[in-house]
Amino acid sequence: MKKKFLALSLAILIGSSQILTASAAREDEINQSKQQAQSELDATYAKIETMEAQQQALLSEIDTKEQELVQIMAAIDLLNNDIANKEVEIENTKEDLAEAEAERDKQYEAMKTRIQYLYENGGNGAWAQMLLEDGDLSNFLSKAENTQQLYQYDKESRENFINIVNQTQELENQLETEKGDLEGMKQENETQKQQLEELLAQKRAESSDYDTQIANAQSMAAEYTEMIQEYNEELQKIEEERQAEEARKKAEAEAAQKRAEEEARRQAEAQQEEEERSSSNASSNSSRNENYTNTNTTNDTYTSSSDTSDYDDDSYYEEEEEEESTGSSSQGSATGSAIVNYALQFVGNPYVWGGTSLTNGADCSGFVQQVYAHFGYSLPRTSSEQRSAGRAVSYSEAQPGDIICYSGHVAIYMGGGQIVHASNSAPYPQGGIKVSPNAAYQTILSVRRIVG
């Protein structure tokens, strides 16, 4: 009977072992697939973070170029206004030149008429004729002096108008030169404007391409996340099946043991009855002693079997206790409130992509890493790696000091729905190390607890 019991137990163990071996193989396969999916997810998040940073830099460059374009367009408008004013000045100068030339010609004609009159009325001998006719030397000298003054006036007037004409002509030439300079500057600005517009069109196309790439990467990340969730559900199902199989195995072993004990008890009783029948002629005292001995033998057999079962149970629980005592201890010691208060000291300091300085500039993950480092906690460097730090809690359970993880971004939870974080490259308070009132301003991927 003991051989039957051993054979039955062995069959149960072999069958259970085969089931557990198949489950373990499937579990290993799923874990490998899950690890690969997790690696792909982390790589995708890292790629998204890189592309977002590159796009942010590109958008900053576009903003700078747009400001340059606005300045150039303003300069072109100003040059157009200056050119228009210069054209008005040139037209006015041309009118002044025409008037000066006309006056110069008029004076010249008047002077020619007076000179012609003198020559037509005696030429050089006219003076002697005037002296003989007049007979008065003082009157003659007075006329001669008047004539000389008129001649000098004519000469000075002519020279004056010639100067006016020359100055007006020079002013016109100067204005034309200035107008040419303005038009040259305008052409140069027009060329720069065209180049900037072409460059901006190219940069905007690149930014749009980044939007497409980031959207595709986020879609891939969502698929990997869904795959990991499915793997977790399947692993949970395997674990439940394993526990059910172990419970079934234990129940079958206990049932087999009970059947074996019952069979042993029946055999002992049958043997006792047989011995009682064979010794019917013996004395009643001998019969009682023999029955007593048989009873002790039966009890010893039962006790031995029970002791073996108790030993097996103790070994099982000892293994479970040993497994439950295994765990990981965190580095450093602090409270969540202390971490938040320390982080708030650096609000207003600049954001620097790739930076890890709490005073001179840090990016989002560098800020979180350095705040925790102050309290003796060692965190990974990137935001995607920090999504695996500590242990996961739900957002509804978030406490001050927890890390809020987004796509390509991390922040420190302050409590009351607020976060403190390093955000983009714009000046504070739009950017830099700052406090934001809504922790759920974008999709929260995970909440990680490092402290407590």
Task: Note the quaternary state here.
Answer: single chain
The shape, in one word, is: rod-shaped
Largest sheet: 6 strands, antiparallel
SSE pattern:
HHHHHEEHHEEEEEE
Number of helices: 7
Say what the CATH topology of the largest domain is.
Helix Hairpins
Roughly how much helix do the residues carry, as a percent range?
Answer: over 70%
Please tell me about this protein's structure.
The protein has 452 residues and is α+β, with helices and mostly antiparallel strands. It has two domains: 1-276, Orthogonal Bundle (Helix Hairpins), CATH 1.10.287; 336-449, endopeptidase fold (from Nostoc punctiforme). The protein has seven helices and eight strands; from the N terminus they run H-H-H-H-H-E-E-H-H-E-E-E-E-E-E. It has helices spanning 2-120, 126-134, 137-278, 284-324, 336-344, 364-373, 383-386, and strands spanning 356-357, 361-362, 391-393, 403-406, 409-415, 418-423, 432-436, 446-449. Strands 3-8-4-5-6-7 form a six-stranded antiparallel beta sheet. It has a two-stranded antiparallel sheet with strand order 1-2. A hairpin with a 2-residue loop joins strand 5 and strand 6. Helix 2 (126-134) packs across helix 3 (137-278).
